[in-house]
What we know:
mainly beta, 10 strands
Amino acid sequence: MEKKLGTTGNVFVKVAVIHVNDYLLKPRQMKVLSKLIAVSIIASAIFFTTNAQAQTVAAKQFTFSLGAETGLPTGISRKGSSFVLGATGQFQYGITNNFAATFAAGGYHFFSKTNPNTGKKFDSYGEIPLKIGVKQFFIPNVYVGVEGGLAWEKLEDGQGWAPFHRRDLAGRIGYANKHWDLSARYEDFYMKDYHTGLVALRLAYGFGL
């Protein structure tokens, strides 16, 4: 599918439909992810038409952004959690004007559901990720990115840290200008056959270092 952006020039974006294994994303999560990506693409298109010449990666320079995140749990997390809130910080180094390396850390809190069998809430918990990644701007202001790393689980009620960590993989699509970064992503925490994760939106403000 091709969509024309703007009224000057012939700029086209090819949007590919990503197929994810059913055990990672159930139909409800696929619908949510599709909506999040659609919102990101629409926002990117609007911003692109008004600010098409903005430089979004400063080559050979570091930037730092602080972001707020909200989303829905996926995988095993869906059984006991209803939604996710988080905050992350991200360092970015511009390798070229279109390509950057990233390092991100932060925390996500998984808010608990009520157990229908007992009438009590499941335990809530947090995930603390450390990730490195890359982002590529394929047209001005619009990018795709991938990240990988590790995540540690923090339990509630003084239970401390879980005695394990999980591998963390994430993919995102977003819009960024000199200061603002809006993105939608799917993130998966996994260990052997155990998968949990989230689909989320991140809005961040960044500045040069």
